[in-house]
């Protein structure tokens, strides 16, 4: 079972993005679970959620404490202590940022880093800076956990055709860097 | 058919012997409403004098000859909304759905559900028999209790003299909901009342209809039982309780009152106002006049 | 007793002997009556009836003796009499 | 063929309700239930359901409207949570005592105060003596399935009682997972249309519904209400089996057990923590601890006999509650179970409480509970309540 935590801000579409992943894996005959963090979601406020993917029924119904993967939709969240809490050694971080790797202050536990500047992609396809669908493309490429064609269909069905194009472009543009994840 | 024909030829659907006080206005109103609506009717009568008088029944007996339920004090209009929804769904809109509630169940704790049902335009007739207080529990104040009234929760003492506030004008508030039909009525003006019940039932087939009927209460008002109708007439003639209707947004005074009697003529018959001095009576007169001016304005201009 | 599963009344009408409440009874003077119908329309307990000839009469089965009919009669054709008096009039 | 889809718990409730073809739906939005009524409103707007949607102004009116609809012979549905349930208490109690069958979805939530909008079962357990049947479910599939089973149990002529499907607010209401949505025809075959047999408002059969009732007869009504609750215990098992035969999903009836066959110690769980509890049991078993799990599904009627049977031979047990019993210093499942098994002081048992106000009941919490129980299993007598509380940051 893969345990994933998502971080973003209210208005970036964290919940809908995660639900789209769950819909896709379920459609693919597999199992997924998403629990949004139950805060008061307001535009701009930090939001997070817990995603699990498995090839059998997911019985556990709790928050994710030791994620293997982090999907971070906003690089201004990197300094928050909760963001990297419990990340497993050698874990994967999929991050929306325009910064270079040198500018980022990442913990040493990160094994794989996937970087995408989602803003220009979102702006060019959906005319608004909502990074979630582009980041789904980055997530799919970086983790290989979701059937990519099916995910794109679900993105198009849920968010509209321009979002499929955004995800597609992100899939091509995401930079995947192996950091080793030294303990 | 004249109103006398209607009343003499229609069946009384209420138990012949019910436990309402001698000279009770509520009993009179209930009987007339059901005589006019007939047997194809479902009625909800929440806690209050009429429910307390046994019209819902006792043990395994029915208090009426038609289906009746005692809803909660505060949910008559919403419970009947469910009944209405179901009857519409069954295609049986010929069935009259009626609520008959006192002023407490209407204007106070029942007002939220009443207001919402009116806003939704539920197909029903809601009749409030207003005896200006919670009579079934011993005459406590309600929001339709008139200013100055002595009640068991607004007693006359050394420093306080009855209710401090003016009444809430429920019929006007209901009219402002945009209900299909809203009217005030008085058993003292029987022809007018019968016609309004008929109109209310007709309107309930396409929207929410509301009747606010003054209900003389010999027990709470401490008046002579035989004077109930006389008081109901005086309430109208003094403009204490003016008679009007609002149909499709048009305001009309159904019983014009060009030469009103002073409100003290009405009040004189009621011990609940006995303690009032000249100043207080003048204040009441002033309120009545103002209310009447507003009504005149509405009937003149919103027509 | 599992006759009914929830409280319902359908055994018949619940009727009180409200005639026993009466201390005064209304007595109608048929000669004075002008058949205006006020008594019938104002009677709270529907104890005054109109017959085929549009004549009015009082039923004492459930009349509570409130006196409204006597009070409202424009011709004073109804008198309230103490129970037991004037029975034969 | 049934449809498989990722659904939130709330949407599972909406789909479950829609499949039961209610005549009237009235619900008022409240966190975390709101999307149940929103989804049903969308179904209605799209013409996918024929139910009348009554857009009420409060939960009090929501319960009143559905009460009127059931009294007029219909099948009705509503949903609520916490303060909404508290507001509807008056008609809620009346619904059951008039023996009017219906199903209500309850996205359970902590009661204020302190101010909170998050998960907790205090709302549901506070009304466990209001005469309704209450089932607590573990996952979203069970929400949908129990709404369908719920009508079948509720509308049984020997039972005629309303039923609450209680599911953890947020932990299920907002959780998305795989749910199988049965075909309408399959549900139709399982659940016949409701035919009201009593307490009907209809001019064709005039009756007074709820006339004044003297005490000696009222006692009889209460007695028959209690008898119906007991009959429901058998009906729950019967409907569960029938459902399992037709849809292939067996929930175990009034309780479900896991690894209880050779269990020396047992934990009792209620609601969504159960899945986590199963994981904890698996982990403990790997360490050689002979632990089993009892999932309390029905809190009303309380399955006394089945609980007793399941705990027979168990040396020690602990219940985990997501709510409290004021005055007992324990959780309600503890109180109920202790009353069911009797001889409380001669065995080892304790109450664990956690997950209030949206707090998580983690795998570590339940594992800790099992380990405590394993240590104490030979020490009968009074035990302090174990609180799953974390240091305040």
UniProtKB/TrEMBL annotation, chain A:
It comes from Ohessyouella blattaphilus. The keyword Coiled coil does not apply. The keyword S-adenosyl-L-methionine does not apply. This is 2-oxoacid:acceptor oxidoreductase family protein. Keywords: Oxidoreductase. Residues 10-172 form the Pyruvate/ketoisovalerate oxidoreductase catalytic domain. SUPFAM superfamilies: Pyruvate-ferredoxin oxidoreductase, PFOR, domain III (SSF53323). NCBIfam families: PorC_KorC (TIGR02175).
TrEMBL record, chain B:
It comes from the Bacteria. Residues 144-155 have a biased composition (Polar residues). Residues 89-213 form the Thiamine pyrophosphate enzyme TPP-binding domain. Keywords: Oxidoreductase. Residues 144-164 are annotated as: Disordered. This is Thiamine pyrophosphate-dependent enzyme. It comes from Ohessyouella blattaphilus.
UniProtKB/TrEMBL annotation, chain C:
Keywords: 4Fe-4S, Iron, Iron-sulfur, Metal-binding, Repeat. The keyword Lipoprotein does not apply. The keyword Metal-binding applies. Its cofactor is [4Fe-4S] cluster. InterPro entries: 4Fe4S_Fe-S-bd (IPR017896), 4Fe4S_Fe_S_CS (IPR017900), PorD_KorD (IPR011898). Residues 24-53, 54-83 form the 4Fe-4S ferredoxin-type domain. PANTHER family: PYRUVATE SYNTHASE SUBUNIT PORD (PTHR43724). This is 4Fe-4S binding protein. It comes from Ohessyouella blattaphilus.
UniProtKB/TrEMBL annotation, chain D:
Keywords: Oxidoreductase. Pfam families: PFOR_II (PF17147), POR_N (PF01855). Residues 263-366 form the Pyruvate:ferredoxin oxidoreductase core domain. InterPro entries: PFOR_II, Pyruvate:ferred/Flavod_OxRd, Pyrv_Fd/Flavodoxin_OxRdtase_N, THDP-binding, Transketo_C/PFOR_II. Residues 16-240 form the Pyruvate flavodoxin/ferredoxin oxidoreductase pyrimidine binding domain. Belongs to the pyruvate:ferredoxin/flavodoxin oxidoreductase family. PANTHER family: PYRUVATE-FLAVODOXIN OXIDOREDUCTASE-RELATED. This is Phenylglyoxylate dehydrogenase. It comes from Ohessyouella blattaphilus.
């Amino acid at each position: 079972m893969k345990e994933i935590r998502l971080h973003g801000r209210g208005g970036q579409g964290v919940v809908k993005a995660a639900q789209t992943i769950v819909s896709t894996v379920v459609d693919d005959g597999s199992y997924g679970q998403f629990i949004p963090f139950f805060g008061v979601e307001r535009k701009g406020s930090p939001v997070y959620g817990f995603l699990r993917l498995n090839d059998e029924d997911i019985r556990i119904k709790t928050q994710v404490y030791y994620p293997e993967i982090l999907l971070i939709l906003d690089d201004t969240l990197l300094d928050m202590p909760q963001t990297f809490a419990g990340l497993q050694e050698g874990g994967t971080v999929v991050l929306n940022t325009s910064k270079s790797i040198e500018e980022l202050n990442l913990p040493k536990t990160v094994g794989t880093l996937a970087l995408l500047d989602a803003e220009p992609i979102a702006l060019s396809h959906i005319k608004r800076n909502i990074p979630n669908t582009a980041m789904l493309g980055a997530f799919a490429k970086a983790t290989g956990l979701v059937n990519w064609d099916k995910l794109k269909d679900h993105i198009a069905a849920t968010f509209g055709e321009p979002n499929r194009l955004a995800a597609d472009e992100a899939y091509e543009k995401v930079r995947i860097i192996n950091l080793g994840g030294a303990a | 058919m004249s109103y006398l024909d209607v009343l003499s030829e229609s069946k009384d659907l209420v138990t012949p012997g019910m436990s309402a006080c001698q000279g009770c206005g509520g009993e009179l109103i209930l009987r007339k409403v059901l005589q006019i609506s007939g047997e194809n009717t479902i009625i909800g009568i929440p806690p209050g004098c009429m429910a307390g008088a046994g019209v819902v029944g006792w043990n395994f007996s029915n208090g009426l000859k038609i289906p009746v339920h005692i809803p909660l004090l505060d949910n008559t209009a919403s419970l009947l909304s469910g009944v209405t929804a179901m009857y519409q769904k069954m295609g049986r809109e010929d069935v009259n759905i009626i609520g008959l509630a006192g002023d407490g169940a209407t204007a106070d704790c029942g007002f939220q559900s009443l207001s919402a049902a009116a806003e939704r335009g539920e197909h029903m007739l809601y009749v409030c028999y207003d005896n200006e207080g919670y009579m079934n529990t011993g005459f406590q104040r309600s929001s339709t209790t008139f200013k100055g009234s002595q009640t068991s929760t607004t007693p006359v003492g050394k420093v306080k003299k009855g209710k401090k506030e003016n009444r809430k004008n429920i019929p006007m508030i209901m009219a402002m909901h945009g209900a299909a039909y809203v009217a005030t009525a008085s058993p003292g003006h029987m022809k007018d009342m019968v016609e309004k019940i008929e109109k209310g039932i007709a309107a309930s087939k396409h929207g929410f209809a509301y009747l606010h009927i003054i209900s003389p209460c010999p027990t709470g008002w401490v008046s002579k039982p035989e004077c109930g109708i006389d008081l109901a007439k005086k309430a109208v003639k003094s403009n204490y309780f003016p008679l009007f209707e609002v149909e499709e947004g048009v305001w009309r005074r159904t019983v014009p009152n060009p030469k009103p009697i002073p409100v003290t003529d009405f009040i004189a018959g009621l011990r609940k106002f006995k303690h009032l001095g000249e100043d207080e009576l003048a204040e009441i007169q002033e309120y009545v006049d103002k209310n009447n001016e507003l009504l005149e304005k509405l009937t003149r201009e919103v027509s | 007793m599992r006759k009914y599963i929830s409280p319902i009344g359908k055994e018949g009408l619940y009727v009180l002997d409200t005639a026993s409440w009466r201390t005064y009874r209304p007595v109608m003077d048929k000669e004075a009556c002008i058949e205006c119908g006020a008594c019938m329309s104002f009677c709270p307990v529907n104890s005054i009836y109109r017959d085929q000839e549009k004549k009015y009469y009082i039923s004492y089965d459930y009349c509570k003796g409130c006196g409204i009919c006597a009070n409202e009669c424009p011709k004073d054709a109804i008198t309230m009499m103490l129970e037991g008096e004037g029975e034969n009039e | 063929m049934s449809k498989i889809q990722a659904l939130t718990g709330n949407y599972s409730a909406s789909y479950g309700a829609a499949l039961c073809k209610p005549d009237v739906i009235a619900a008022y939005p409240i966190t975390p239930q709101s999307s149940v009524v929103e989804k049903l409103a969308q179904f209605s707007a799209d013409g996918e359901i024929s139910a009348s949607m009554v857009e009420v102004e409060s939960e009090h009116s929501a319960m009143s409207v559905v009460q009127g609809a059931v009294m007029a012979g219909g099948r009705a549905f509503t949903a609520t949570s916490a303060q909404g349930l508290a507001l509807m208490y008056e008609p809620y109690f009346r619904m059951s005592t008039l023996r009017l069958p219906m199903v209500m979805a309850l996205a359970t939530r902590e009661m204020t105060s302190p101010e909170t909008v998050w998960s907790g079962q205090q709302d549901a357990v506070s009304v466990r003596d209001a005469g309704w049947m209450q089932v607590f479910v573990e996952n979203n599939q069970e929400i949908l399935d129990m709404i369908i089973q719920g009508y079948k149990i509720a509308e049984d002529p020997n039972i005629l009682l309303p039923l609450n499907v209680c599911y953890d607010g947020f932990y299920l209401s907002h959780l998305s997972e795989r749910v199988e949505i049965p075909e309408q025809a399959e549900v139709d075959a399982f659940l016949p249309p409701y035919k009201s047999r009593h307490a009907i408002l209809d001019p064709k059969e005039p009756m007074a519904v709820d006339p004044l009732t003297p005490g000696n007869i009222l006692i009889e009504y209460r007695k028959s209400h209690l008898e119906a609750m007991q009959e429901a215990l058998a009906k729950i098992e019967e409907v569960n089996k029938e459902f399992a035969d037709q849809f292939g999903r067996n929930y175990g009836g009034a309780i479900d057990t896991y690894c209880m066959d050779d269990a020396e110690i047992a934990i009792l769980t209620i609601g969504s923590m159960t899945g986590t509890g199963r994981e904890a049991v698996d982990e403990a078993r790997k360490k050689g601890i002979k632990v089993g799990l009892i999932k309390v599904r029905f809190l009303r009627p309380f399955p006394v006999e089945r609980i007793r049977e399941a705990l027979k031979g168990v040396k020690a047990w602990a219940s985990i509650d997501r709510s409290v019993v004021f005055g007992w210093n324990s959780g309600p499942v503890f109180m109920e179970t202790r009353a069911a098994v009797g001889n409380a002081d001669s065995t080892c048992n304790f109450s664990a409480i956690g997950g209030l106000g949206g707090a998580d009941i983690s795998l570590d919490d339940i594992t800790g509970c099992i380990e405590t129980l394993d240590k104490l299993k030979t020490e009968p007598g009074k035990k302090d309540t174990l609180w799953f509380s974390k240091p305040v940051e």
